[in-house]
Amino acid sequence: MQGKEYLMENDEEALRLDIKTDTSVVEKQALWAGIETGMRVADIGCGSGKTTSILHKLVQPDGVAIGVDGAEKRIEFAKERYGVKRIEFICKDIPEPLNDLGVFDFVWVRFLLEYYRLNSFNIVKNISEIVKPGGILCLIDLDHNCLNHFGLSPRLETTLFAIMKYLEEKADFDPYMGRKLYSFLYDLGYQDINIDVASHHLIFGELKDADAFNWMKKFEVVSGKINFHFKEYEGGYREFLDEFNEFFTNPRRFTYTPVICCRGRKPMA
């Protein structure tokens, strides 16, 4: 984002986001949240634009979708890959006022708030300004992110927890954002709040190429931005990465991450 550097910022981030986004999952979540044909929809933190495209199809024939992201490169990617009639992609610093976008029947915020641990509620409050009275705000994020694995060695488990703690304290990343979403909507006075909890990462057996690319890219990018000391490993980051790769490619391993979806209706003025 423009206000601060996005933790996962890299030249392949739009591609990573595009590959890991499952169309059927997004459709299911959006329909559960209450999206309907004819709505004016905003996708805040739209990334590659794939989610915006999916939401756009769900509001046709007369609906409109606007995707907003803080990175020019991702907006360019979105325009090139998903730019069609009734979709608009806009580059904006999301923590800043968004009122110039107008108001929306349905506002979607998926996998954004975890990157703003300290300011997440204020960002939701800001986004809420563009939800029209009676409109729906849907917040979706992971919980216990990157921390649920079976088959780790003691030093690998210790290191993974230490990395996530480091990211909380030094990079404003929140591995536990999902569990906070309900309170955000509650504190803002939203009505008809509903919650759904499911698995986002569910990895067992042979490793899929998309999961391999997603997880190894995360480690590669984040490790290059933090000054974390891999004290459990004499060989440092490279030895840690080799062990994690050996664990992650082993079909015996089990990894999962809960995703929490929270939706509410803004009170009528």
Query: Considering DSSP H and I runs of 4 or more, what fraction of the residues is helical?
Result: 25-40%
CATH structural class: Alpha Beta
Number of domains: 1
Q: What's the number of helices?
A: 9
Task: Evaluate the radius of gyration.
Answer: 19 Å
CATH architecture: 3-Layer(aba) Sandwich
Mean pLDDT value: 94
Shape: globular
Q: Would you list the SSEs in sequence order as H and E?
A: HHEHEHEEHEEHHEHHE
Keywords: Methyltransferase, Transferase
GO biological process, one term: methylation
InterPro entries: Methyltranfer_dom, SAM-dependent_MTases_sf
EC number: 2.1.1.77
Outline the structure in words.
- There is one protein chain.
- The chain is an alpha/beta fold and 269 residues long.
- The protein has one domain (13-265): Rossmann fold (3-Layer(aba) Sandwich), CATH 3.40.50.150.
- The protein contains 9 helices and 8 strands.
- It has helices spanning 13-20, 23-33, 50-58, 72-82, 120-128, 154-171, 181-187, 209-223, 236-248, and strands spanning 40-44, 64-69, 87-91, 104-110, 131-142, 149-150, 191-204, 254-265.
- Strands 1, 2, 3, 4, 5, 6, 7 and 8 form an 8-stranded mixed β-sheet that branches.
- The protein is globular and about 60 Å long.
